[in-house]
């Protein structure tokens, strides 16, 4: 695998424990915003939030909804499960701002993330972070977890004008980094956005099967691992 010089690496839930950090932040938000006034069982709110979040991010990745719609609806949808609450746009935006602030100060990483980046940096790879996350939030999270120093380039969908898995995103990333398709590898945990998107752009792929080690990709990937530490045996 010495042919690779450039690594495109997903951030959320590949290196940064977005799910784990968000679980903590969501519970803090519930308590600070006194949402127990509307939910006897907080699990009703949490479950509805995650269902809405997964659904809306899926639509956002495909370009079917806007960022503003996602920000409002991912709180309006779960809040609508409460009793005696009117989830106005203004209130949803207020909760979103609080939530993103709570999230962005969390430092939790996926096991082995820092060790992997130290290893890859020592090997001389150029590393480029590739994310659909929001501009102001991603830079705060990078600062909080201390991984920013490892990346030569930060590629965000808002800069690219398109989300992963769009070919436009990966074409922009290649142009921005001056990387060659033949010597670039995409590493990510999400098959649909990270891996299939890179495949469609002609880029080799490494799937981090964080969520389900038994997952069989619909299309063959170049490499697959069940932990970040395994990547050090491949690169």
Description:
- By secondary structure, the protein is an alpha/beta fold.
- Helices cover 47% and strands 12% of the residues.
- A six-stranded parallel beta sheet has the order 3-2-1-4-5-6.
- β4 (184-188), α9 (191-200) and β5 (204-208) form a beta-alpha-beta unit.
- The N and C termini lie close together (6 Å).
Notable traits:
235 residues, alpha/beta, 9 helices, 12% strand, elongated
Describe the secondary-structure layout:
Elements: E1 6-10, H1 18-32, H2 42-61, H3 67-79, H4 89-104, H5 113-122, E2 126-131, H6 135-145, E3 153-156, H7 157-160, H8 167-177, E4 184-188, H9 191-200, E5 204-208, E6 223-225
Parallel strand pairs: 1-2, 1-4, 2-3, 4-5, 5-6
Helix pairs in contact: 1-4, 2-3, 3-4, 4-6
Taken from the alpha-carbon principal axes, the silhouette is: elongated
Low-confidence stretches: none
Q: Could you spell the SSE succession in H and E letters?
A: EHHHHHEHEHHEHEE
Q: What Rg is obtained from the alpha carbons, in whole angstroms?
A: 18 Å
What is the gist of this entry?
With 235 residues, the chain is an alpha/beta fold. It has helices at 18-32, 42-61, 67-79, 89-104, 113-122, 135-145, 157-160, 167-177, 191-200; strands at residues 6-10, 126-131, 153-156, 184-188, 204-208, 223-225. 47% of the residues lie in helices and 12% in strands.
